[in-house]
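Entry:
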Amino acid sequence: MPHPFNSVALVGNARDLRVAECMLSLVGHLAGRGIRTLVDSGIGLSFPADSVERCPERSFVDRADLIIAIGGDGTLLYATGLVAGHPVPLLGINRGRLGFLTDVSSNSMLEDVDTVLAGRFTEDRRSLLAARLEHAGAPPVRALALNDVVVNKWETGRMLDFETSINGRFVNSHGGDGMVIATATGSTAYALSCGGPILEPDLEAWVLAPISPHTLSDRPIVVRAGSRVQLRMSDRVESRAQVTCDGAAIGSLETGDNLFVESADASITLLHPPGYDYFRLLRSKLHWGRGGYGS
C-alpha cells in the first residue's frame, strides 16, 4: 500500500545551480504526479505556474508529509532543525561532496523518489544530542545536534584548558584546541578528522574526540549514549571557546562556564530507497576495497 505522501517540501540552497536544477526537475515531476510541493517563500527560482506553494520553512512540519533535502550533509543537518521532534521524515539527495546523510544520487533522483512515494523504503531513526550552555547569572542556551556538539578555541592563538566529566565522574583535564562530542551519526564528520572511530549509525554510543590535543595520551573515547557529559573551562587559564551544534554557533564558553551534553527527547527519521547499505556507502565515500581482496 503506498505511503500517503500527499505533500512534499523541498529544502536546499537554490543559489547553487546544481541544487536549483534538481529542484526544478523535482517540482515538475511531483506536479505531474499530483503531489503538492512546498518551497520556502524566499527561494528566487521561477517555477511553472501553480506547481508550488510558497510558505516559510518553519511551517513545513505542519504542512508536509515528507521533506526532501537537496545538497550536501549540511543541508540535511539544516533540515534536521526543522523536523526535530516531529514525525515528518527526511529524504536526502546528494548535490554536495561526501554525502553520508544525503545518500540518494542526483542521477537516480526521480526513480528513487518515485520508489519512496510508492511506499518502498527503509526507515532509519537517528537520535539527537541536547546541548545546554550555562553562564553564571544568565539563562542557559539550549540547542540540538544530529552530528556533533563542538567546543573550539575562538579568537585566540592560545590553547584551551578545560575538564571533562561523565555522569558526574571526572574524566580528564585537557589542553588543546577543543573537543568534539559526536553521535554515531556524526562519527564520520568532524570527529573522524580528529582520529575518532567510525560507528554504525544505529549504535547507541557517542565519541568524545579531542581536537589537536597538547598531550599525546589524550585520545578519543567511546561512551554509552545517554551519558551526561560535562565540559568546564578551567579557572587556571583565561581562555575563550565557541560552542557549535552541527556547525551553528550557539555561544561562547569562558572561564568558569559549563557545557552539558545529554540525549535529546527528540529524534528524526531518514528514509532510504531499497538496497541502502551503510558499508557500501563507506566504501564509496572513503574509497575502501580498491586494489585488494575487496575490490
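Helices lie at 17-32, 60-63, 73-83, 109-117, 190-193, 278-286.
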